[in-house]
Amino acid sequence: MSTTPALVNSATVSPAPRRSAGETTSTLVNRLWSYCELLRHSGVSTLDYVEQLTYLLFLKMADERAKRPARFRRNDPEEPLVPEGLDWPSLTSRSAEDLLEQYEHILRELGRMGGTMLGEVFTKAQNKIHEPAVLDRLVKDLIDPYTWTRENQDLKGDAYEGLLQRGAEDRKTGAGQYFTPRPLIDAMVDCVQPKPGESITDPACGTGGFLIAAHAHIAERYEDQLYGDQARKLQTGAITGYELVRETARLALMNMLLHGIGTSDGRPLITVQDSLAKSPHKFYDIVLANPPFGVGSVTGEAYSARKDFWTQTTNKQLNFVQHIYTLLKTNGRAALVLPDNVLFEGGAGAEIRRRLLDLTNVHTLLRLPTGIFYANGVKANVLFFDKVPPRPGGKPATKQLWVYDFRTDQRFTLKQRALRREHLDDFVAAFHSGGTDYSARKPSERFQPYEYDELIARDKVNLDLTVLQSASASSAPLAPPDVIAQEIVDELESALAEFTAVAQALKKAVGTTVGTEADPAAGDRANSTTTGTTEETDQER
Fold first, then answer.
1. 77 cis-preceded (ω within 30 degrees of 0)
2. Taking Cα atoms as reference points, which of 151, 157, 7, 140 lies closest to residue 82?
């Protein structure tokens, strides 16, 4: 890659104006999103126009990154993210058919940089905007006149993240399956507190939200230490992820580059693979994840090859719990979002919970309210555990599980009352209230400890614990009608999701039986058909 910064030909391209004082990233993203109506009328599908917007916005923000003031460049000299001639100015200096040809040339040439972050971003990228006038207006009227990075600050991918979030809000796009609310991500990272020198991963990284938040946490709190080897490690492999869907991995790589994680010509920091298929060959200090919902594997089979799993199950979240345990180094720590069924499901679920309590310090459970995810009806929790060395005499690693009930009497919706980071301040304060000694934490109405002996004696090692009783109707004001209506919808959709999972499991069982008796291959075909539908309906990550 060229080390010469990309330059704008001042004779043909005027500088883009800075955003006005009232021009927020949200305003810019909403304006850009409104233009999607034109793309839809031009025959571009819903998912395709989101992808095209991310390509173009990436090129524009990469150009802004190359032109930012020297004081925001940690490395000197700093290479541009995109080579000259394949960058944003090469688009803005052209019109009509010439612009269309250049855009396709850029996608093709950048996609040939195999084995690099930038190459992976544009691998097999195709232009879906075939009308030159539409592309011209999108480039010159909707993107180029505005500055998408925050003024007087280092580059942040806020506009890019805003576009992903805007896509998630429009549930028809399907983008919501990859999106975990940023306030929740930030709170989880603030609890785990990653430090320089630690290795961090997300085995189901989606668009990379956890990885970016962990990087931001380290960069903001340890800026004075991030020079030399520490800085290089943070850029070249301390933070990595795994993602099953190539298109989603592409978004994650873009997002990471725009947030200053990795280098264009460096190796890709996201690996495209089924994380559960094989035992890990690399181990980490921290694992942050929101594993996808679903049953079975990509092939429709159980993960029988995983001899390091405690037990066999087709429940994907339970398998991720086992996988994350194997990913952790000794003294490593994990925080993962899990649905309610992982806390109470019997059979393999009970065995996995028992092993987890015995082999790790399962110290904190955060019960989440409904209405914070882009998929309705999701009842989820955040489970925190540390992989500690074996205790003398084979004693269980868990002493107490502290449960914080953030669900009872808490109402959120995506628009009327969206979750904000300050809503989780009390939980984060409670999490750290004992310092490094979890047993010294301060209990409260919502935050209570449960002893190991009590947990292990519960039927099926059920961890579905409710700390706080809901206020009676006479003492608590009714929620607004729209909130009540949404809660009813959430409950119904949650029940439907549970029935769907049962139906899929029954279908798989029937298919396996029929296949065994009549056609040995029939069972595999039935399984593949069943799990093929669940792969596309995974929970937000």
1. yes
2. 7
Say what angle helices 209-221 and 182-192 make with each other, to 10 degrees.
50
Tens-level pLDDT at each residue, the chain (541 residues): 333 333 223 233 333 444 443 456 667 667 767 666 666 666 666 556 777 887 898 899 888 878 876 555 554 445 788 999 999 999 999 998 999 999 999 999 999 998 899 999 899 899 988 889 989 988 998 889 888 766 444 445 565 666 666 666 655 544 455 578 889 999 999 999 999 989 999 999 988 999 999 999 998 888 777 766 666 677 668 999 999 988 888 888 988 887 888 888 889 999 999 999 999 999 999 999 999 876 555 554 568 889 999 999 988 999 999 999 999 999 999 999 999 999 999 999 999 999 999 999 999 999 999 888 766 667 899 999 999 999 888 899 999 999 999 999 888 887 778 899 999 999 999 999 999 999 999 999 999 999 999 999 999 999 999 888 776 444 455 556 666 666 566 556 555 655 665 666 566 555 544 444 444 333 333 333 333 333 333 333 4
How many CA atoms within 13 Å lie on the side-chain side of 417? 14
Tokens of 377: 């009806």
Q: Contact 85/66 with Cβ under 8 angstroms?
A: no
pTM, full prediction: 0.77
What DSSP string runs through 33-69? HHTHHHHHHTT--HHHHHHHHHHHHHHHHHHHHHHS-
Q: What is the CA radius of gyration of the chain?
A: 24
Number of Cβ within 10 Å of residue 34's Cβ equals: 10
- Distance between CA atoms of residues 247 and 412, nearest Å: 30
Long-range contacts of 150-158 (CB under 8 A, 24+ apart): 150/25, 151/18, 151/19, 153/72, 154/68, 154/72, 154/260, 155/61, 155/64, 155/65, 155/68, 155/72, 155/258, 155/259, 155/260, 156/258, 156/259, 157/61, 157/212, 157/255, 157/258, 157/259, 158/25
Residue 143 DSSP label: I
Give the 3-state DSSP-derived string for 454-472, with helices as H, strands as E and coil as C: HHHHCHHHCCCCCCCCCCC
> End-to-end distance of the chain based on CA atoms, in angstroms?
33
Cross-strand bridge partners of residue 295:
315
Token look-up 């001639």 returns 85
Q: What are phi and psi of 483, to 5 degrees?
A: -70, -45
